[in-house]
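Example complex used in Figure S2.
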Amino acid sequence: MTDIENEKIEIGLLLEAIYRKYGYDFRDYAKASIKRRILRHCNLSGLKTISELQHRILYNVQFFEALLMDFSINVTEMFRDPSFYGAIRESVLPVLKELPHIKIWHAGCSTGEEVYSMAILLKEADILDNTQIYATDFNEKIIKKAREGIYSLEKIKAYTTNYQKAGGNQSFADYYTAGNESAVMNKNLRANVVFADHNLVSDASFGEMDLIICRNVLIYFDRKLQDTAIGLFRESLPSGGFLCLGSKESLRFSIYSEDFEDVRIDEKIYRKKNSHG
Amino acid sequence: MKRFIGKKTAMVDSGYAAVAVGVSTGGLDALKFILPRLPENFNLPIFIVYHIHKTSDDFLVCHLNDISRIRVKQAEDKETIIPAVVYMAPPDYHLLIEWDCTIALSTSEPVSYTRPSIDVLFETAVDVYGEKLIGIILTGANRDGSAGACKIKAAGGLVVVQDPETAQADTMPKAAIAAAEPDLILSLEEISEFLCNLNQN
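Predicted assembly (478 residues):
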């Protein structure tokens, strides 16, 4: 047990060191998950203890940047959970279509696959030109990849299947230009997308949004931090504004759960309730 | 090979706080055998990682719940762990136990080619329950869970492995036996009996 207790102390100190040195605040991340990332990094770097890792982090920026990449879990795909995108088509786009101008915030967009997926849906609903999308992530390097929109052809195959499962009936190949090994997503899909660096832990809301998508991000936060993020979304949504979470995330355990109503509970699509009454 | 049966298992100390189970190929029959045998006053939480295809629906969980006396559910992110509930890892998510005794899910990369991974469950559960954790490895055709079982042993917890001769697929139990020197090697019937006995202590 002492080893386990010592590691808990070391993890607390490491996260504090990262915060004080680099300003990234992982102190309220879900600990079991972050511990696995840390130990994995120790292992890959041939370090025996977390204290050794802390020393390297403090004195070597490149080493910290490598750890930062490891802390952001960039497991994503286009039309991930196809039924979710089907539900967006059915239950959300018809409402958005009524608005003169649409603002969407994709928080924690990782390498951008889901941003392009949403842009495709909007284009097919004929409202992409009318929409401003803000796609954010805390990791600048990842945001750069998202902006480039280049994905391996091998993955594009699976994405095509996902697109079709999500109810897409156009030619998916029209949305990218294929090279030898990779595909570049069409520029017009990101014409109205602003890719920006934003940290849900420490940064403020940047305006009112009609739809916020934050999928498979909150599972890495502890309950307190999850509520901070949901509070930020709540603040950024007007009454009736949509909030979409990952398929295994929910508002059930949040202090703000009463402020939202279910739109499609099976797909974790919520709407902010009227604040009066 | 060490093998303890029936009477010996009745002498296992009480004071355990949780049970973590890893199961793969042949798992449906194994779970259908064990879970319905647990009494309704079973007083520990049970976490299960069962390797199933990532697009599986919740039929399995519903079925196991229907045939069991204790509640069987799919684990939800951030929920508080309570005794007498069986928490099953959702397909395509790792199941982790958080330091504040809540459930956490993760989509991080597969471990030993699989997500959910038994190792991830065992390693995070041992951080919370330490020597009060029981880890059980059942039938399976891969080696997931062996590393986690070693961590449970190192923390002073108890490791039980299904007797490979009784397992539909023996690779996983054999790997765990070779890696972790389990405390008990039992048939499904004996594992059920062992779990029921925990309750009486």
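Confidence is low (pLDDT under 50) at residues 1-11 of chain B. Chain B has seven helices and nine strands.
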